[in-house]
Amino acid sequence: MLNALSKIFARRPQPRQPAVPAGARYYVIGDIHGRLDLYEAMIEAIERDDAASTPADTRIILLGDLVDRGPDSAGVIKRTRKWQKKRNVRVLAGNHEEMFLQSFEKEDILRHFLKHGGRETILSYGLSKKQFNAMTLDELFKLLPKLIPQKDRDYVASFEELIVAGDYLFVHAGIDPSLPIADQKRSDMLWIRDRFLNHQGPLEKVVVHGHTIFDKVMDCGNRIGIDTGAFRSGVLTALVLEGEEKRVIQTGDVDGSITVSHEDHEGTLDRV
User: Fold this and answer.
1) What's the domain count of the chain?
2) CATH assignment of the domain containing 148
3) Is residue 24, in this structure, part of any structural domain at all?
4) Spatial contact of 207 and 220, defined as CB atoms under 8 Å apart
5) DSSP label at 118?
6) Closest among 19, 85, 88 to 50, alpha carbons compared
7) pLDDT mean values, one per 10 residues, the chain (272 residues)
8) Whole domain around residue 103: which residue ranges?
């Protein structure tokens, strides 16, 4: 009788948690948006964290939207290229990178780009506010290829669309829940919002994404959003994945002073 009851009430084994490949450590950084100060602090924090941890195959992923809105997009691009010489750093394309590149092709797209943070990107390449304000859209369109080096444009054009690691998929905005990963469209991966965010069922992989701003890292089980609005909130977030473990590193701007915080999964991630 007791044996039968013990079998009935025995704890069921917990389902396996999503994991990255064994031996790997991933640092996944959300939307930087020209905040070079927060990005520099994040790089230093990641380097310290990695040095203090057990040896691993360390990989860094930037989830896109390196440019626009913040004051130093040019500096963020330059710093990323420098970091890639030392580390395995892969960069995903965001919708702001797409607008940035397309603004060289059509004046109408340039006008749209300027309204959504492109002005700050252009100023970061050395154009003064006085010069910018004195120019017509046509004049700016003609100046743009001379102002922003071709090497930077080619570099941004080389950004990836998605990365898969173990049970995780890394992408800028999200995916179309109705399609397998192999059939995803670039437009959705860079721009999707409601159809992805409102989906509550399981996905082929746990999707780690930016693009949509949350006050805290948002872990919904099927997806994890890590854009904490660096350009607006002054908080840049990195999700650290190792085996089944999840941690968070954040750099913040508090009255002009840059701070660094480390939290475990339970301390920072909002579960919904």
Assistant:
1) 1
2) 3.60.21.10
3) yes
4) no
5) I
6) 88
7) 52 77 98 98 98 98 97 98 98 98 97 96 98 97 97 98 98 98 98 97 97 96 97 97 97 94 67 44
8) 20-271
